[in-house]
């Protein structure tokens, strides 16, 4: 089983770009929040406003915009451009999730809140220490094992 970590992100766009690059390929990504300035996400081939078995809405009231997009090597740059432009990932997007292989492997909830940003799969203490040294993360800590993303 892969360790789960709660992470305190200093550089949200930088961290998201890295996570997207590492997880791209046979993955899906969801965004929830004010997506009115991210219309290009809805135009990506395979984009849907429907929840999937893994990627669910996290805010029921008030209802937020929601989209699921394929996260592939050839879509990652276009996705990132939509959410990074104008600081949208910092201000407008509330929740970000990534599913790979049928498991939720990354979640950033409540605008990357330190108690709401978790990575389940692929992270190692070495890689997290490197991100901390580069100033992308403030800190990280192992999360209690609840079997998520196993």
What does this structure look like?
It is a single chain. By secondary structure, the protein is an alpha+beta fold. It contains 5 helices and 7 strands. A hairpin with a 2-residue loop joins strand 4 (93-100) and strand 5 (103-108). It has one domain (5-142). It has helices at residues 12-23, 39-43, 76-84, 88-91, 125-133; strands at 5-9, 27-33, 65-71, 93-100, 103-108, 117-119, 137-142. The radius of gyration is 14 Å and the shape is globular.
Please describe the structure with a list of short key phrases separated by commas or semicolons:
150 residues, alpha+beta, 5 helices, globular
Count of folded domains: 1
The SS-based structural class is: alpha+beta
Contiguous low-pLDDT stretches (5 residues minimum) are none
Q: What spatial form do the alpha-carbon principal axes imply? A: globular
User: What order do the strands of the largest sheet run in, or round the barrel if closed?
Assistant: 3-2-4-5-6-1-7
The portion of residues assigned to helices is 25-40%
**Number of beta strands:** 7
Strand content: 25-35%
N→C terminal distance: 5 Å
Mean pLDDT: 89
Helix-strand string: EHEHEHHEEEHE
Global Rg: 14 Å
For the largest beta-sheet, the strand count, sense and barrel status come to: 7 strands, antiparallel
Question: Tally the helices: what do you get?
Answer: 5
């Amino acid at each position: 089983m892969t360790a789960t970590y709660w992470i305190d992100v200093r550089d949200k766009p930088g961290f998201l770009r890295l996570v997207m690059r590492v997880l791209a390929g046979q993955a899906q990504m969801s965004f929830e929040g004010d997506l009115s300035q991210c219309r290009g996400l809805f135009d990506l081939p395979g984009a849907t406003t429907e929840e999937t078995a893994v990627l669910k809405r996290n805010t029921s009231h008030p209802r937020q915009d929601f989209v699921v997009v394929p996260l592939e090597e050839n879509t990652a740059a276009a996705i990132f451009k939509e959410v990074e432009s104008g600081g949208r990932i910092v201000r407008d997007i509330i929740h970000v999730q990534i599913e790979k292989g049928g498991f939720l492997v990354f979640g950033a909830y409540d605008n990357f809140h330190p108690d709401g940003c978790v990575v389940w799969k692929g992270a190692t203490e070495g890689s997290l220490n490197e991100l901390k040294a580069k100033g992308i993360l403030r800190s990280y800590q192992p999360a209690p094992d609840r079997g998520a993303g196993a």
